[in-house]
Amino acid sequence: MKNKYFRHLKNIMPKGMQPMIMFAFSIISIILMLILGSVLYIRFSSVSRQEITQGTQKLIEQTGESLEDYLVRMRQISDTIYYNAVKENDLSHQDRDLQREMNLLYEANQDYLRSIAIYNSSGSLVAAEPVAVQKEDPDITRQDWYTQAMQEVENMHFSTPHIQNLFNDATFRYYWVISLSRMVELTDKGDTQTGVLLVDMDYSNISRMMKQINTLNNGQYYYLCDSSGKIIYHPRQTQIVKGISSENSKVAAQYKDGSCDETFEGEQRKVIVNTISYTGWKLVGVIPFSTFNQGMVNIKYFVVALMLLLVGMLIIINRIVSKRISRPILALNHSVMEYEAGEKPRIYIGGSPEIRHLAHSIQNSYEENEMLMNKIVLEQNERRKSELDALQSQINPHFLYNTLESITWMIEGERNDEAVFMISQLAKLFRISLSKGCTVISVKDELQHAQSYMNIQKVRYKNTFSVVFDVDPIICTCCTVKLILQPILENAINYGVGGMEECGEIRVEGRLEQDQIVLTVIDNGLGIAEEEVAYLLTDSTRVHTKGSGVGLVNVNNRIQLLFGKEYGLRVESELDKGTRITICMPAVPYTEENRKILEKGYLFSKEEIVDKKIKAGKDEDE
Questions:
Q1: Which pTM does this prediction carry?
Q2: Residues 186-208 pLDDT 10s
Q3: What stretches of 288-345 show up as alpha helix (H) in DSSP?
Q4: CATH assignment of 381-621, given 3.40.50.2000, 3.30.565.10, 3.30.450.20, 3.30.1330.10?
Q5: 214-295: what fold?
């Protein structure tokens, strides 16, 4: 298993010095960035949690101050009614003054109040504002606010939210209120008796303040409860009343001001508590731990973006460092590869002393190899030229022997005019054959040579066959090896139409096909046996029934020596139907420069041939 792991690791490792160095540096950098990213994330997570907790605490403190201001205002209203109205007036003589002062206070604070009422010790209504009709037998003495006020005479008491149910409302509207109640002393005809002052605060003001801070949708919320845990406000108050939801308010009511962690219904959360002065109410903020994770999303993005930026910068730095380290070796390797590709650059010499010494050694080695290669190429060119000259010398005696023999027959037969014609054609033949010692001539001259030869042969064979030349003029200005058509025409006569009783026909065709010259010699003669065709171009030692046996092999070898192995002859023949011999050569324009290059044995590539055709075309246009 261990060996398999190392083999897999070896397969994924990059090849080459620079990628290897960069890969190693990058792996180290990524590991460092992961460690740094984890540390940053933990640190940011801690800071973010503290900021969310501190922000919640500040918001609770501000809201608590607003609630305290509101409740203090209600206490001030209660004190004003008690000390300025109730204590200063006798109910039997000055009830109008009491009603007027209560009206003034109500009008000044009606945005915060729903009603003000005074009840005596028996629970009867003494005065109320706004003026309203009390419901029948509301049983005041059993109301919680009344009993609490009568039991704890020194304190003000705040009830939980409830629907105001003391007075009839002509609009049939019912309001949620919080009742502030206190025991007061009432004077009636000089006698003092106890009573209860009731101030019903509009619950919507408290609800509005709580709704303003319950606007987050991340699971965080705030609620208000009294000292016993009864809910005063909760964003899910309706669900709690119906039993659909629940809240840990009774436990939270026992918490001291500050923050603590708790688990409620399987959910971990942080609870922040602030006590409202004068009331014992608890303003509670709840932050589920999932909220902290949501708050970390932006921090995650920030850390990831920072890591990507740092990794990108480190990769760039790693690339620069690895490139600087590996540049001399890569440059040396590049120059060596260019040498191997056939170019001749100078071997790069630079870098550390060890690399410079290696470069000098390689340079000296290549220089010695190049000298040896040049020597070998020179020897090979001389050898190819010698072989070409030897093959050329095989043609001339062979052809001269046959031609002189024909002229001898004509002179002996006193056919002087024909002999003169034969000698003149033979002179043209030798003029082209000699070609000032050149092996490469134009296709035009080669065709002229072939026509002169066929004129001689037609006279010799008494016009027993016809010859047709159908050559595209475009190929006449291209290069060819001289004396390649004459041996083929000679074979066409000897093996084909020469022994026919009927009139034979020999066709010489020439075309340009895909940057190649295609010359074809076709006869309708006797044809060649299939087993003989297979050896025509491969075995020069076989004894043929006619001819010298060196013609076709000689032509094929000379073409391949000059132009390459992909060119040469292709023989097709069938007994009693004729023979078709095709010559393929590259279409190299005939110029003195190209002729000299070919004479030296240099082979043109296809790209060079196209380029030389373009140049030749430009020269003709000029």
A1: 0.47
A2: 887 778 888 898 898 888 888 88
A3: 289-295, 297-340
A4: 3.30.565.10
A5: Beta-Lactamase (3.30.450)
